[in-house]
Amino acid sequence: MKHFDYRTRVRYGETDCMGVTYYANYFVWFEAARTEYFRAIGFAYAEFEKQGILLPVADAHCRYLAPCSYDDLITIRTVVSQIRQSSLRFEYHVLKAGCSKPIATGYTVHVFSNRDFKPLRIPEELKSKLELVGLEL
Amino acid sequence: MKHFDYRTRVRYGETDCMGVTYYANYFVWFEAARTEYFRAIGFAYAEFEKQGILLPVADAHCRYLAPCSYDDLITIRTVVSQIRQSSLRFEYHVLKAGCSKPIATGYTVHVFSNRDFKPLRIPEELKSKLELVGLEL
Amino acid sequence: MKHFDYRTRVRYGETDCMGVTYYANYFVWFEAARTEYFRAIGFAYAEFEKQGILLPVADAHCRYLAPCSYDDLITIRTVVSQIRQSSLRFEYHVLKAGCSKPIATGYTVHVFSNRDFKPLRIPEELKSKLELVGLEL
Amino acid sequence: MKHFDYRTRVRYGETDCMGVTYYANYFVWFEAARTEYFRAIGFAYAEFEKQGILLPVADAHCRYLAPCSYDDLITIRTVVSQIRQSSLRFEYHVLKAGCSKPIATGYTVHVFSNRDFKPLRIPEELKSKLELVGLEL
Question: What's the CA gap between C15 and C12, in Å, rounded?
């Protein structure tokens, strides 16, 4: 496994009066995809938090290439593309059934932090696992 | 003052592909209106939480009578309609500029709780103030 | 089948600073559950809309019995409990892994409407199917 | 006027269980700020849509520098930083009372489009007005 595919359907409440998904909601999907990425490689992000390790977002970007609508089946293809001392970068491709190209691409950068938002080093066990998993989409 | 009027505009992201406000977002407005209701009578709900007094929702209802759309100017007319030992009931009328009748009505019931969600008695100072303010819309 | 079980995980963005799911988001889950309920009995709500048949919410209620947190696996047990000339009533039980009782219960009432929000009669084919499926949780 | 200041308070539902504002909600604020920016220079975005001119987002970015919490009073300082044939770029500084530096910065790029998401030229009247208003924060 290099990437992880998180599948979901566009909820009604995720659309707006333009008839398509509201732009901020892609970031909600990215977050759900990160949770499942961690689970897929054997970590529960909820457990990190119980140990006082938070992963707040430092940077978030999305490029919107084609819209998607209510009930569309979409896939968030997710990979960790960079591992640093105290940060991680995720990249995302949003795929829609029937479209050969991504309908959106994006990234988020996260800093390992304690509850006071001071940086922490990445847990060694997670780092090793991510390096094993690989960094390409 | 018996009631408090919280004014806001419908945000684009609060609408859905039916072209009108998504039903769950009325509850978000109710919550913003509660915050401003407390402020209007001299309390900051954020301060309650710092003291370990939470007000989770036990019951929530909304009746939708007419839709509202992006950028509509709306008013959430808010009143505390019932005060009990450890609970409060808020009632809401959603008003839209140009409509004589409410476009929605609703209520929420809240239980004073500690951080473990065990019931607490209503703070005496708040109770006195609410009784002074009055309970009718 | 009488009821339909929609399973999802609590997303990070669905929680609030009380540490548990924000109350309005239960209604988002109810909506996702309705979509899957329709699909389970052979209808796509998105298709109704393409034919000009909308199902706006007229009434929504939720009772919150116990909280749920980020990443909790929950089930929205969904049933149509009432079928009228031009309306439907859904009831929901929110179940959490490890809890014997529902952590929340709720209902929504929907009116079959055209694009101008004028009531329509329930499509005959849907009515027959719902009666066949049954109305008890 | 070069920039426009949109003021709002962090709503409870905009926070998450990290105790601070959920990252996707900054984009919701950016959108509310755009609406008020247009109004401040004499245009109603809702009117554009009635004329069949949409402004979907093509690109969105946010850098998170410091967190903000429930009930914090924040300002979204908003400017149009680039005007092209059929696109606009907005930049945003999120300011918090008591903080000298922005707690977040971001941008969005929008493409003038018809209802089928085909690009349109920017309306001449809007272009003239934006050039008059100026492009620096």
Answer: 6
Contact D17 C17 (CB under 8 A): yes
C-alpha radius of gyration, chain B, whole number: 15
Do residues A59 and D63 touch, judged by C-beta distance below 8 A? yes
Return mean pLDDT, chain B: 95
Strands A104-111 and A57-64, by their bridges, are: antiparallel
What amino acid is encoded at B23 in this protein? Answer: Y
Q: Domain residues of chain A, as ranges? A: 4-133
Q: How confident is the model at residue A137 (pLDDT cuts 50, 70, 90)?
A: low
Question: ipTM value of the model?
Answer: 0.96
Asked whether the whole model's pTM tops 0.90, one would answer yes
Structure tokens at C15: 């929680």
Q: Which chains sit next to B, with 3 or more Cβ pairs under 8 A? A: A, C, D
Q: Which of B31, B35, B71 sits opposite D46 (nearest CB)?
A: B71
Per-residue tokens: A40: 């897929």
First to last CA, chain A: 10
Tokens representing residue A37 in the block:
């990425």
- In the 8-state DSSP scheme, what is residue A125? H
CATH placement of domain D4-133: 3.10.129.10
Radius of gyration, CA atoms only, chain A? 15
CA–CA separation, B93 and D135 (whole Å)? 41
pLDDT band of residue C134 (cuts 50, 70, 90) is confident
